[in-house]
Inverse folding.
């Protein structure tokens, strides 16, 4: 009797839980793309025929992109230190999330993905491991690695590998936030260059969101952590926060606590958790925009946000305007693979955001600033924009 036919264990509280039932045995498998129905197919798929392909790749390594799965396969790599809102739960407990990520890659981008959970938190050990695994993959998706280590890991891998490296907690979030913000600004009649933004959180997502908004033309951004606004006069900044300060508060002169910079702010973007008091929310500009992206509890609950804001978004699926990374990463890798890109550039991220925003721009409303993940146009639209940007930025190999 196979496991799926077994009777439920009535003493196990998980036995009849549909979530555990869905995860039983894992959520993915390896499937063959060729038939092995006879001796001829076997001799071509494996020995002796496969040797001809191996010899050709040995002579011209670029042929691996054409005659193996490499050009359509991404490694989803984590150390389990920043999993969802659960924190540092370790590599084994991270595997269900990594499997889920792999399934999303396939479902929404047609990209094969392999989850890899590493039993180390050492930056150099992670980098060395990924570098040694890299010949098996066309790209690396870093996932759920705590800040600031995630910045160092990503940068070191970019320096050593000539394949796309993408930390989704940073850049996937940033792409979708920018797409949603473009339409929110359009609805509220604002311009990028005159909009005041407050970002709560200076971890992986906060840094990346700030960077992409600056690249898109936002000039006035205050980034706030637990201590207050990040600015260079503070002595407690790590290198990533110090660099952020130079491009934000040091230019605008904004200092103080969250409550200080929220007065008159046009946009609040929460990527930190915690709760913003209602009186602080009330101090924002008229027709404000609030993106409370912490899960499961947004920094500003939508019921409160709607009292003071015209456009509200969360990271949850049970409210309108869900900021969901699945809108970005499958199409970004699909486009990068289609162009055989050697990297994912800032231009490719901006192109992905612009393409997402444009999909619903003509019908945008307060409750529709971003397309649904189940809109079949999303993956192909993002992929096409990313591939075009890769060629424009000079990182495409076809």
């Amino acid at each position: 009797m196979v496991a799926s036919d077994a009777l439920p264990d009535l003493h196990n509280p998980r036995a009849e839980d549909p979530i555990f039932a869905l995860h039983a045995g894992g959520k993915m498998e390896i499937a063959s793309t060729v038939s092995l129905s006879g001796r001829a197919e076997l001799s071509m798929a494996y020995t002796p025929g496969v040797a001809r392909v191996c010899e050709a790749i040995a002579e011209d390594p670029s042929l691996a992109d054409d005659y193996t799965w490499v050009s359509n396969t991404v490694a989803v790599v984590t150390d389990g230190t920043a999993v969802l809102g659960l924190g540092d739960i370790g590599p084994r407990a991270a595997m269900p999330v990594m499997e889920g990520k792999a399934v999303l890659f396939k479902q929404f981008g047609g990209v094969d993905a392999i989850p890899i959970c590493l039993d180390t938190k050492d930056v150099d050990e992670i980098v060395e491991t990924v570098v040694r695994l890299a010949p098996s993959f066309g790209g690396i998706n870093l996932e759920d690695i705590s800040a600031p280590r995630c910045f160092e890991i990503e940068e070191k891998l970019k320096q050593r590998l000539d394949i796309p490296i993408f930390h989704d907690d940073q850049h996937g979030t940033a792409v979708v936030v920018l797409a949603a913000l473009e339409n929110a600004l359009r609805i509220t009649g604002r311009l990028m260059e005159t909009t005041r933004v407050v970002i709560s959180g200076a971890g992986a997502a906060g840094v990346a969101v700030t960077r992409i908004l600056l690249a898109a033309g936002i000039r006035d951004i205050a980034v706030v952590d637990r201590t207050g606004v990040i600015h260079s006069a503070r002595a407690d900044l790590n290198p990533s926060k110090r660099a952020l300060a130079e491009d934000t508060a040091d230019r605008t002169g904004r200092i103080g606590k969250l409550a200080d910079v929220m007065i008159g702010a046009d946009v609040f973007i929460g990527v930190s958790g915690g709760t913003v008091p209602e009186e602080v929310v009330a101090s924002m500009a008229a027709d404000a925009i609030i993106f409370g992206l912490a899960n499961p509890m947004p920094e500003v609950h939508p019921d409160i946000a709607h009292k003071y804001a015209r456009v509200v978004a969360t990271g949850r699926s049970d409210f309108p305007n869900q900021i969901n990374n699945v809108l970005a990463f499958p199409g970004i890798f699909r486009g990068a693979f289609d162009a055989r890109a050697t990297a994912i550039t800032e231009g490719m991220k901006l192109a992905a955001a612009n393409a997402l925003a444009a999909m619903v721009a003509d019908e945008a409303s307060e409750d529709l600033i971003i397309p649904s993940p189940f809109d079949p146009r999303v993956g192909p639209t993002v992929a096409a924009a990313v591939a075009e940007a890769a060629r424009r930025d000079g990182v495409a190999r076809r």
Q: What stands out?
A: The CA atoms of residues 214 and 247 lie 8 Å apart. Strands lie at 73-78, 112-117, 139-142, 165-167, 196-200, 220-224, 267-270, 288-292, 309-314. The first strand starts at residue 73 and ends at 78. The mean pLDDT is 93.
